[in-house]
Design brief:
Blueprint lengths: L16 H23 L12 H5 L1 H6 L6
The chain binds zinc ion.
Zinc ion (ZN) binds next to helix 3.
């Protein structure tokens, strides 16, 4: 006699797209802002004067293959 019974697998709760959409947009904007600062800021374009942002993200820029110098 087997002592184990198979239970029905629990179903994950459904997440409506309306709840995800604002967070997806926010995440996409933050991602694009990060890509801008790593890839373009103080290289092709510059919002801030000096080279602080460039030096701060310099290794990431090379790692991701953005043109630098
Ligand atoms: Zn470089």
């Amino acid at each position: 006699m087997a002592l184990t019974r198979s239970l029905p697998a629990p179903m994950p709760p459904a997440i409506p797209v309306r709840e995800i959409l604002p967070w997806a947009i926010l995440g996409g904007l933050l991602l694009m802002l990060g890509i801008y600062f790593v890839g373009v800021e103080q290289g092709a374009l510059a919002i801030f004067n000096g080279m602080y942002v460039h030096e701060f993200v310099h290794d990431g820029r090379h790692l991701l293959g953005f043109p630098c110098h």
